[in-house]
Known about the structure:
Elements: H1 2-8, H2 14-66, E1 87-93, E2 96-99, E3 120-121, E4 126-132, E5 141-146, E6 151-155
Antiparallel strand pairs: 1-2, 1-4, 3-4, 4-5, 5-6
Amino acid sequence: MSKRRLSKQSGFTLVELMIVVAIVGILAAVAIPNFLTYQARARQAEAKTILGGLFVAATSDFYSENGTYVVTQVTDLSFLPIGTPRYSYWYDVNGTPTALPGGSTATTPCNVNSSPPGVLTNSISFTAGARGNIDSDTTCDDWTVNDNKILINIMDDVAN
């Protein structure tokens, strides 16, 4: 009777279970980094969207009314980021890159309280910028947009 009982038992062997665990581990090792990169790219959409709004505020609102991109204070643009931004946003005020109120003020692990390179303004053109940290490392993610609505990722935090 004991021989019959052993031959009728069914289930998975330890080796079969270990093979399944190894396959799941390999799939997770491939999927998790791809997911994290996808998530970081989605966070960059904030900078693209808000810089697009800043472009509209500078070109359609301020320049069309004043004939210049030069502002005496950053609030002249009548533009503020809303929500809880991951980025700080910058516009040139009298030759000094100035942060827009409402942006991020994080200092660690990447200090967003300094302007990304290239933020400049004159009477006929401007370049505004954004600086943020989207993946909790020491590298900042820097973006600029200009009066021609050319959006450039100067320092890509996702690729580093």
